[in-house]
Amino acid sequence: MLERLNHVMDRIEQGLDGTVDVEELARIAATSVYHLRRMFSALAGMPLSEYVRRRRLTLAAAEVVAGREALLDIAVRYGYGSGEAFARAFRAMHGVGPGEARRTGAPLSSQPRMSFRLVIEGSGSMRHRIVEKPEFGVVGFKARVPLVHAGPNHAIMDFVRGIDKEELARLAKLSDQAPEGVVAVCDDLDPSRAEGTELDYYQGVVTSAPAPDHLASLAVPAGTWAVFTVSGPMPEAVQLLWRDVFTQWFPSNPYASRPGPEILRVRPTPDGTEADCELWLPVEEAGR
Question: How does residue 122 score in pLDDT terms, banded at 50, 70 and 90?
Fold first, then answer.
């Protein structure tokens, strides 16, 4: 997988002054566009689109400072339809506009070309199992919240605190299949997985029962799930698990992520300092 991803990086470089076709990149990586975006974001620490934008603006900056071409010609070559759009993007990355950079030789930012390599860290194994699950429903309380990569998600915490405890106890009784009990469900995430993009968050249960009128519902089709377990302090344990799944497990296993909700079952320890967690991710056989 890493070798294919490095072929993807080569193709990106070839298309920086033209077209970068994400569907072509996915074919080179022998995976889906959905999985490529998620894999890239986890490995690179930024969305694929952001990396392409920053690489283009890095090359454009070199040409701006060289002073051999008109700024508009450079803007068009790197995909900007107007000088104004180019100037806004240039300033956002470099802190100065292209005209000022050319006149003054101000210091500019740079996005180095990335490549991927395998690094062996420790000898631990990830606890996981593969589950084939028929169609089911998620029923519960729903909110639209921002994505947070590290640390507490205060929007989710405030939302959960606002749910009546008796209502939550009644909801728990609707659970009739794995993962059991009240779970956290994330759906409709932005493909970029960029920090601050929004997602649908459910505090709910997995069930075959119909949803009461006052609750939201989500229909989930049949499919394959990878189920990972971890214990540790929250939310760090799950955030690190999610990172490790995409940087270690997917590159070394014959599966790819597929669209669908992500389900987290959390059971706190008696003192509340840690939790036992079960993370369900929708997957499919790689290359399908």
Answer: very low
Other CB atoms within a 10 A radius of the CB of residue 270 amount to 6
Distance, CA of 260 to chain centre: 13
Tell me how far apart the alpha carbons of residues 83 and 98 are, in angstroms, rounded to a whole number.
Answer: 10
Q: Quick one: CA dihedral 201, 140, 34, 225, positive or negative? A: positive
pTM of the complete model: 0.78
pLDDT of residue 288: 59
DSSP 49-97: HHHHHHHHHHHHHHHHHHT-S-HHHHHHHTT-SSHHHHHHHHHHHHSS-
Distance of CA 226 to the CA centre of its chain: 17
Write the burial class of residue 15 (CB in 10 Å: 0-12 exposed, 13-18 middle, 19+ buried): middle
Q: Are strands 275-285 and 255-257 parallel, antiparallel or unpaired?
A: antiparallel
Query: What would the mean pLDDT of 109-127 be, rounded to a whole number?
Result: 72
* Whether residue 125 has pLDDT greater than 60: no
Using a 10 angstrom Cβ sphere, with 0-12 exposed, 13-18 middle and 19 or more buried, the burial of residue 213 is: exposed
Q: Are the C-beta atoms of 283 and 257 separated by less than 8 Å?
A: yes
CA atoms of 96 and 84, how far apart (whole Å): 13
Q: Token digits for 125?
A: 């194994």
Radius of gyration over every alpha carbon of the chain, rounded to an integer in angstroms:
22
pLDDT digits (tens, 9 = 90+) for 4-23: 889 999 999 999 998 999 99
Give the pLDDT confidence score for residue 133 in this predicted structure: 97
Q: What is the DSSP string of 219-273?
A: EE-SEEEEEEEEEESTTHHHHHHHHHIIIIIGGGSSEEE-SS-EEEEEEE-TTSS
30 has a pLDDT exceeding 50: yes
